[in-house]
Fold this sequence. Notes:
alpha+beta; eight-stranded antiparallel beta barrel; 32% strand; 2 domains; 6 helices; Lipocalin
Amino acid sequence: MELPGKPLNATYQNEERDQIRRDLIEYCTQHCIGSPTLQSRIAAANDRTIDEVNNKTLQRFLAGQHRTNDAFVWLCHKFLLGVDVADPVKQFGDAATAFFQCSADIDAIASVSGQYDITAYGDGDEDTEQSSLDLVPVADRPYLRATEEVGGRAGGNTHEAMFEGVAFLRPKGFSIVLRDTLTRRQKWHMLYPGPPSKPDEFAGQMMTPLFFGSSEGANAISRVRMSKKGIAAHGS
């Protein structure tokens, strides 16, 4: 779909789309609004009708369910240029850095940045969840921005989710603190380096709350293996 006024060079890579999605979700959170109100505000900011900013398309984009066309993303991007959205990940990273008194040099941060595959294991050695993690250095900060995309679970119980947060380096490994971008569900990874012969592999534990549709709840704790893209992770 091409919309009048959209620049021909207005194309968006995955990283840019993720940032626009995060900013829209954060805007909704800060202003306590849902997608219908966001839809009307995007339409007004772009001098469009409500029908030109389809709510179902907006909801799918916010959920990261499919690759939304560039014309629609451009409308969202143009809307964000006119509003002030704080970066909650950086705010959290700065506060946690001061609280934990974290420090890390640029070389150490650069050595762990990149894209990783994560496999979570249940009671046996069969994997229960596959995800992709992106660690990006934050300028002049002793931590990394972490984005985790969960693909699904074994046994056909597919569940896709996107998490955002920060990764802190420790003398032995690092900790990753995340939240679901939609539900705000928390998630933690405690990871330790593998043997010297495998510097790009880590192992440890992942914990996240489980909800059973009632007042009862519990935490899921799983063993995890993490390796840089292209390096297979194996259970132990």
